[in-house]
Amino acid sequence: MATSFSATLPLHGSQENRLLLPPIRLAPPPSSFLGSTRSLTIPSSRSRLYHAHAARRSPVVGVQEVVKDKKVTNSLLITKEEGLELYEDMILGRSFEDMCAQMYYRGKMFGFVHLYNGQEAVSTGFIKLLTQSDSVVSTYRDHVHALSKGVSARAVMSELFGKVTGCCRGQGGSMHMFSKEHNMLGGFAFIGEGIPVATGAAFTSKYKREVLKQSCEDVTVAFFGDGTCNNGQFYECLNMAALYKLPIIFVVENNLWAIGMSHLRSTSDPEIWKKGPAFGMPGVHVDGMDVLKVREVAKEAVTRARRGEGPTLVECETYRFRGHSLADPDELRDAAEKAKYAARDPITALKKYLMENKLANEGELKMIEKKIDELVEEAVEFADASPQPGRSQLLENVFADPKGFGIGPDGRYRCEDPKFTEGTAQV
Amino acid sequence: MWGILRQRAVVDGGLSLRRTRSALVSARSYAAGSKEMTVRDALNSAIDEEMSADPKVFVMGEEVGQYQGAYKITKGLLEKYGPERVYDTPITEAGFTGIGVGAAYAGLKPVVEFMTFNFSMQAIDHIINSAAKSNYMSAGQINVPIVFRGPNGAAAGVGAQHSQCYAAWYASVPGLKVLAPYSAEDARGLLKAAIRDPDPVVFLENELLYGESFPISEEALDSSFCLPIGKAKIEREGKDVTIVTFSKMVGFALKAAEKLAEEGISAEVINLRSIRPLDRATINASVRKTSRLVTVEEGFPQHGVCAEICASVVEESFSYLDAPVERIAGADVPMPYAANLERLALPQVEDIVRAAKRACYRSK
After folding, report:
1. For residue B351, what are the domain limits?
2. Min CA distance, A93 vs chain B (Å)?
3. Same domain as A395, residue A261
4. CA angle (A100 as vertex; A96, A105 as ends), nearest 5
5. Closest residue on chain A to B55 (Cα)
6. Which DSSP helix (H) or strand (E) runs through B295?
7. Distance spanning both ends of chain B, measured CA to CA
8. Fewer C-beta neighbours within 10 Å, C or N terminus of chain B?
9. Residue A108 and residue A198 in one domain
10. For the whole model, what pTM was predicted?
11. Which residue is catalytic, options B49, B93, B235, B268?
């Protein structure tokens, strides 16, 4: 079942989904990571001490507890429409990424490509709860975040092929998916770089409300990995987000590996959710291979942020089925671990849930899969047929104000010279 | 009035022409106005006016609020605009710079202060990767109307880690605009232009100039006053040698030009104002007039701003040069602390005079 927040949160949602929480209490001893074949090295006495101390220091404690079984209330977590929407989104993510791998090995895609296979539950679970004006900030593993946020498969595929019809006209590439229309604020190659940018976007929501007096309920979701949680910028932003009570959700996609560096080998305390309470925000740990659990946690986090109660740190334990990038031989992860997580594929799990609870039948799901297959194939054809950017595009968009290229030899602004974007750069 | 002076010049001969011309020029380079303003007040008034004109402009940085600004540039802004628009941040350059960039992505206009630009190195990833490159990477969808400002370059006895000049580093990045004011008028006009600009601007001030007073015209005191980005200013006209520089060195170059004038060399002093985009047109036009170039900067010599200016002049005006280009920069060492060593590590007026004379083949 989904893990829950601390007791200081008032609860929101229908009666069926009510998570029952006692008032402030000490957190129970931590459980080991759900799927890893390595065990945690924290001795239990030390962790108990930590939790006790945390409870004394602040009323907000990272809580990890099992909530009462929802089946008792005899209601489901999602409706049929929601279920099919989630299924379609995850299938889109998976098919798209598989197609990317194919295209890369055929030479149509190049450079660094990082695939999201296995982590779809996190993207779908969070982003499908957002509106168009909410913002998402991601890392280089951003294709599926862009797709979930609404950027069309054609635009993403063309961008990956480096064509002018891409979402960034071929100028960004795999790692830099931007879409102003869908408020997808990137696509950053440096880990940790997106976190302050996301915090700034959340800052703008608050500023619009308080200073510009506009009604603004937009939240920002920042996605990043386990390796990023050892980076200074992460902590700087946890501090400032909690300090200024910004409407942001920090989502850690803990897939246990940062290229070839195991999370357990590089982190003194591998339980990332615990770092939230240290800064005064709830820290939640959730099984990131289960889209419904992620969605429940996401609902509370997003509602909390919209109500103005501040940030939340959500650690989703997930796994990437492929290597770090298409150039990664992926030799360091052992087969047993991969098999264990492959058995917990989020798409298979959702399919099983939908069918067992009679929300959909085999035929409907097959239709969705077929529809997505066609969509992705069409996206590839579209991208193939699209032209490459024109030569003049090289110098465009460096500045929003074109006078940024300065004065030409004739004394006038270079951008006023009609020949400026035609030939080779004579800047 | 021009006519009479010209007649007198023709009668008296070349020497007095130079003298009268330079007197006229220096009167002309500071517009007729009896008001004086320190650079500090100029910057403060610029930020104040832009904040009152546009509610999306806000200030963030260390000690900008309650402390009234580490160098008192943001004095009075907290009281006037409140804590929602003047943010005292924790000591987290990477964090708050990134927050500023994210806020700019979402439509606000932050003015991020670095206590000195040396501290911007902790945030340089955001200045370059998420601010400068974003408009290009997103193909024009996301522009970043942010200003990064703060003191740059050497101060007095602050040691190696507080004295580096970052003009060359930032000016090499496409997507950034880099400005370096000298006088109060420069400071006001360029900062207002920077805040209104839709692109990321790195605004390099100078701590030692903050307290200096400059005459300022009525026009510059108007709240809509703005200087164009990318145009250099000819501070002093001359015809024998061109001295190109920016920020504090402009003052030194003007003093050097006075000394050179006594020896009969008429120096043209160009205040770059804008390091990126560099006003190559003005520099080259001036060198084609004088045939000699001396460039001065405070920063490290290798790959510096002067190197770029020299390369540009050699590429575009080679056949006009009568002497090798002269480049004066800070010494190729981290800044020493001892006062006499610091003086040796930075360009002084004598160095500029010597280089100009060398360019005119007048050195002993």
Report:
1. 233-360
2. 22
3. no
4. 155
5. A212
6. strand B293-296
7. 40
8. C
9. yes
10. 0.82
11. B93
